[in-house]
Design a protein that fits this description.
Keywords: Hydrolase, Protein phosphatase. The protein has 151 residues and is mainly alpha-helical. It has helices at residues 28-40, 55-66, 72-82, 90-103, 127-150, and strands spanning 2-4, 9-11, 112-115, 118-121. A hairpin with a 2-residue loop joins strand 3 (112-115) and strand 4 (118-121).
Length: 151
C-alpha cells in the first residue's frame, strides 16, 4: 500500500492479470478491510481496473459479502445494477465462492456450471440459458449412467 501524504490518499495497487489463474483471493480481505476502514472514517473509495468488469467488480462484490452482510449472489446483483457490464472471470468466481463458503459454514449461493469449454456462475445466466444448461446436464448425466451400466 502506498500513502500519498499531500492529498491524504491511500493507494492499494493489486498487480494481477484478468486471468482465471490469477489469485485475486489473496487480496480479498485486504481490499475489503481497506474499503471498510475508509467508510468507517467518513472517507470514499475508488476501486478500478483496466475495463471495470472483472477484477474491480470482484473486489467490490467481496466487500459487500464481507461487510455488507449480503450473499455472494445478492452482492453480484447489487454491483451489476450499478454497473451492468461486470463479468468476473470463472477463476475469480471460484475464488469468490470459496470465500463465501468460508464465511457461511461451507454454504454458497452461487454455483459454477459448465458452459462451452469453460464454466459460468449460474447468477450470470438468463433463466433460458440456465434451463438449457440444466437440461443438457441432466441428459449428459443420464447418458453417462446408461454407459456405466453397460460396462
Amino acid at each position: 500500500m502506498f500513502r500519498c501524504t499531500r492529498f491524504t490518499v491511500d493507494y492499494l495497487k493489486v498487480s494481477l492479470e484478468d486471468a482465471e489463474c490469477s489469485q485475486l483471493d489473496e487480496y480479498f480481505d485486504l481490499a475489503a478491510d481497506l474499503i471498510e476502514h475508509h467508510r468507517m472514517n467518513g472517507g470514499k473509495t475508488l476501486v478500478h481496473c483496466a475495463a471495470g468488469r472483472s477484477r474491480s467488480a470482484s473486489l467490490c462484490i467481496i466487500y459487500l459479502v464481507k461487510y455488507g452482510k449480503q450473499s455472494l449472489r445478492d452482492s453480484f446483483l447489487t454491483i451489476r445494477r450499478a454497473r451492468p457490464v461486470i463479468a468476473p472471470n470463472p477463476g475469480f468466481w471460484r475464488q469468490m465462492i470459496k470465500f463465501e463458503k468460508g464465511l457461511n459454514n461451507g454454504k454458497a449461493t452461487v454455483e459454477m456450471l459448465p458452459r462451452f469449454q469453460s464454466e459460468v456462475a449460474d447468477v450470470c445466466l438468463t433463466p433460458r440459458e440456465l434451463e438449457y444448461i440444466k437440461r443438457w446436464l441432466q441428459k449428459t448425466n443420464d447418458s453417462a449412467k446408461k454407459r456405466a451400466a453397460r460396462i
